[in-house]
Amino acid sequence: MAGGRLTQQDRRDIAAGLSQGLGYAEIARRLSRPTSTISREVSRNGGPDAYRADRAHQATERRARRRKQPSQSSPPTGTTSYGRDPEAVREYTERQVDLLMQTGLPRMTSRVLACLHTTDTGALTAKELTRRLQVSPASVSTAVAYLEEQQLIRRVRDPRWRRELYVVDDDIWYRAFMASIQRNLALAESAREGVRIFGRTTPVGARLEHVSVFLDRTSQDMIKTAERWRPVLTESSRDGHQELDQV
User: Fold this and answer.
1) Which residues make Cβ contacts (< 8 Å) with residue 74, sequence separation at least 6?
2) 43, 165, 187, 193: most buried, per Cβ within 10 A?
3) Is the predicted pLDDT of residue 158 greater than 90, yes or no?
């Protein structure tokens, strides 16, 4: 069943493939599964060195039982009021975590960002994040600090409840995009400095000059593109986050 859940035998085959030194793509091909399914399964259960099939299967069953036992203290997920399929939402969120991890974000940081992105309000407190993700407050604190530094989320104060909210709105992506461009421009300036030090006519200097020109010109093009299309984000975020913007 290529689209079904992993069975215990699937997990034993994954463990066997890892022990043979096979990559995720090859294991996925043999099981007729997406590569992301294999990488998520392994990373969620100890990584390639510590993965054990039976232990992974038991852990998955425990998580499934927890999902079937709703808690009165659990926050609303929004899956009922909008008629969403909770399982589809969960699987989509997990795919988002995988994609974010592929960009270089740590797993917990990716989980926090994906959690915010799949929340209708786009804003949660640290306590809410801790409860939704079932992790320690320290883990959430480390993740949000990194996301703030990368300008992928922002922190606002809710005066009505005297609490801080971590917010991911549409304009966040513009700010994160611009921050990435600024890093590229800094690399371009560093390359120009290298040209001055090594000399334009030397192999090193010539290489660095090509790098500086490439980074500078592509960054300028990206700035123009971001500015051109920014209204697409600001228009959509104005209605959805008007109340938060007034905080």
Assistant:
1) 131
2) 165
3) no
